[in-house]
């Protein structure tokens, strides 16, 4: 997938060497696939995907309306903040 999508960054995390980051990302299963776009996590699931499913998922993420995603994140954060007060 990385060869077909040079505009995307693909990375692996050594959870043993970077336990703090793994904990912050709440990684409990290996592998865990996480996709970030514009600094926002837009996908997270434990387990590997077959190549065709991964390609489809990458296409869906690239097609996201990030203004709408940012609005949804802001609304969720505001609701969470209101509940904690």
UniProtKB/TrEMBL annotation:
Protein name according to UniProt: Thiol reductase thioredoxin
Cited SUPFAM superfamilies: Thioredoxin-like (SSF52833)
One Pfam family it belongs to: Thioredoxin
Domain of life: Bacteria
Entry-linked InterPro entries: Thioredoxin-like_sf, Thioredoxin_domain
Limits of the Thioredoxin domain: 5-58
Gene3D superfamilies reported in the protein's UniProt record: Glutaredoxin (3.40.30.10)
């Amino acid at each position: 997938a990385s060869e077909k999508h040079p505009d995307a960054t693909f990375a692996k995390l050594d959870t043993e060497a970077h336990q703090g980051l793994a904990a912050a990302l709440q990684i409990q299963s290996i592998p865990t696939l996480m996709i970030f776009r514009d600094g926002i996590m837009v996908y997270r699931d434990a387990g590997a995907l077959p190549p065709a499913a991964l390609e489809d998922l990458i296409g869906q993420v690239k097609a996201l309306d990030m203004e709408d995603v940012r609005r949804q994140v802001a609304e969720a954060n505001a609701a969470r903040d209101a509940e904690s007060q």
